[in-house]
Design goal:
This protein is an alpha+beta fold and 210 residues long. The chain has one domain: Immunoglobulin-like, CATH 2.60.40.10. It has 3 helices and 12 strands, in the order αββββββββββββαα. Strand 10 and strand 11 form a beta hairpin. 40% of the residues are buried.
């Protein structure tokens, strides 16, 4: 009887060890601050856009839209030092394009299983109407995406800001750009394409993945 009891304890212990450090996509959570829902993040392929902590709410109001991930394993314990490059962001319809590790977490998880996305994304394209999903080793967290959007001087999302993007922005500026909504060139989310957007477009010309 004692032998069976000890064997049972060993089996349970080994099972717990086997699942330790394995992310649970249902227990893990990703959040943004209150008031950041619907905010827009301006990106450039070289990382020269704005950080999540300087995103634009409607009306060009700067808000902190930092994404906080708490990574929990199947045993319900926080995962320490999960590698940052294995945690990244994608949008629900791939409107955001990104360079290698361009949407990776800022750092590996801390002792509480926490990491953040504050640094600028290295990417392009635009994601109006999409949500942001947090991926862990190739699989998205359960529970749906976050209400954030992205746009870029790299309007066509080929990860290089060049003449084709200038032409696209000119069409947006003139109100004739039928393939993309105005949001594609409204870089500060104030619902107007004006000088401030022209300045960001101009500054982005020539940028590409490093």
């Amino acid at each position: 009887m004692l032998r069976r009891f000890l064997l049972g304890i060993m089996v349970v212990s080994l099972a717990s060890l086997a699942w330790a450090g394995v992310p649970d996509l249902n227990l893990s959570t990703a959040t943004i601050p209150a008031g950041a829902a619907g905010a827009s993040v301006f990106t450039l392929p070289n990382g020269g856009g704005v950080g999540f902590d300087a995103a634009f709410a409607a009306g060009a109001v700067v808000v902190d839209a930092t994404i906080t991930l708490t990574l929990i394993d199947t045993n319900g314990d926080p995962i320490f030092q999960y590698p940052f490059e294995d945690m990244w962001l994608e949008t629900s319809a791939d409107g955001l394009t990104y360079c290698a590790n361009g949407t990776a977490a800022d750092a590996s998880t801390d002792i509480n299983g926490i990491t953040h996305w504050t640094n600028p994304v290295l990417g392009g394209g635009y994601s109006i109407g999409e949500t942001v999903n947090v991926y862990i080793a190739g699989s998205p967290l359960a529970g749906g995406g976050l209400n954030l959007t992205f746009n870029s001087a790299d309007i066509n999302g080929d990860l290089s800001v060049n003449l084709s993007d200038i032409a696209a922005f000119t069409q947006v500026l003139g109100g004739n750009y039928v393939n993309n909504p105005k949001y594609a060139g409204d870089f500060n989310n104030d619902n107007v394409i004006n000088l401030s957007d022209i300045v960001r477009m101009t500054a982005g010309i020539g940028t590409h993945c490093n």
